[in-house]
Amino acid sequence: MLHNLELSTAKRDEMRDITREVRSLVKNSGIVNGLAVIYCPHTTAGITINENADPDVKHDVLMRLDEVYPWEHPKYRHAEGNTASHLKAITTGSSQTVIIQEGDLVLGRWQGIYFCEFDGPRQRRYLVKLIED
Question: Which of 7, 78, 105, 115 has the fewest CB atoms within 10 Å, i.e. is most exposed?
């Protein structure tokens, strides 16, 4: 099963928790055991798994990514001016795979799935492929 989901981002850089949406797809699919592949088809956004208990973690991650990949740099050559967003997307990656066991996502106690926007605000989409064992 392939699901195409959309979201709107409000900032240039943000991490949006999409765990609830992915978990709902899994529960409604009837799949007991398998895999969920969450994929971002954009070159300036990504998908990651990280802590979702303390919102300061998102702040700290975005802050450090900005320090490592500043928005402006004298040696950037990309004409669109968003080189930093491409570098951040490469760092986070474009997909994550999560095990489905007993009809639910297998995530650690504090883990959540995040859509990472690095060139917003924009209308974005991500795909979730559910694969049954």
Answer: 78
Q: What one-character-per-residue DSSP string does 13-43 give? A: SEEEE-HHHHHHHHHHHT-SSEEEEEE---T
Exposure letters 108-123 (e unless 16+ CB within 10 A, then b): eeebbbbbbbbbbeee
Given this model, what pLDDT does residue 88 score?
98
Can you tell me the mean pLDDT for 83-100? 98
H/E element holding 58? helix 55-68
* Bridge partners (DSSP) listed for residue 66: none
- Spatial separation of the C-alpha atoms in residues 29 and 107, rounded to whole Å: 18
Give the whole-angstrom CA distance, residue 85 versus residue 120. Answer: 9
Q: How far is 118 from 32, CA to CA, in rounded Å?
A: 34
Phi/psi region, residue 81 (left: phi>0; alpha: psi -120 to 50; beta: rest), is left
pLDDT in tens, 1-34: 899 999 999 999 999 999 999 999 999 999 999 9
